[in-house]
Amino acid sequence: MSVASEPSAAAPATSPAKRSLPPVIRITDAAADQLREILAAAEPGTALRVGIENGGCAGMSYKMDFTTQIAPFDSVVEDKGVKVVVDTKAVLFLLGTEMDFKTDKVSSQFVFNNPNQTSSCGCGESVAITPVDTGAESGQG
């Protein structure tokens, strides 16, 4: 009869390889220039908070506010001299998004080029976004 031996205390535990995730948000030069200009007029320590909210004909819309508060699980992106705080609840919806600033003949606006966006409404005010599957629920890390 054979008895299985217990692993020795010296044997290192193996963990699954972690999958690297893209940055939450990348900021283009045009967006950074506009944000620097806007934030220069705000009180010191102010950052842009980006999130999503339910609403609109496509289901969700991007939300931008100024903040001086950073919650414990918010993601902070500091790039090109600007600070962007991504709301905790929005991280999986915005992962890999590029934030840009576009100007044309009739408007100027921040634009989110989001690989997780599946559709948008005709007016461009609301979007449908699928959260990123990080593999955490399926046991992959």
Order of adjacent strands in the largest pleated sheet: 3-2-5-4
Q: What does the average pLDDT come to?
A: 80
Q: In angstroms, what separates the terminal alpha carbons?
A: 38 Å
Query: Count of DSSP E strands?
Result: 9
Query: What global shape is seen?
Result: globular
**Annotation field: number of helices:** 2
- Biggest sheet, open or closed, and with what strands and sense? 4 strands, mixed
Order of helices and strands: EHEEEEHEEEE
Into which percent range does the helicity of residues fall? 10-25%
- Radius of gyration based on Cα positions: 21 Å
Beta-strand content: 25-35%
Q: Indicate the structural class.
A: mainly beta
Low-confidence region ranges: none
Describe this structure in words.
The chain is mainly beta. The protein is 11% helix and 35% strand. The strands form 3 sheets. The protein has a 4-stranded mixed beta sheet. Strands 1-6-7 form a 3-stranded mixed beta sheet. The longest helix has 12 residues, at 29-40. It starts with 24 loop residues before the first strand and ends in a 12-residue tail after the last strand. It comes from Xanthobacter oligotrophicus. Residues 25-125 form the Core domain. Belongs to the HesB/IscA family. This is Iron-sulfur cluster assembly accessory protein.
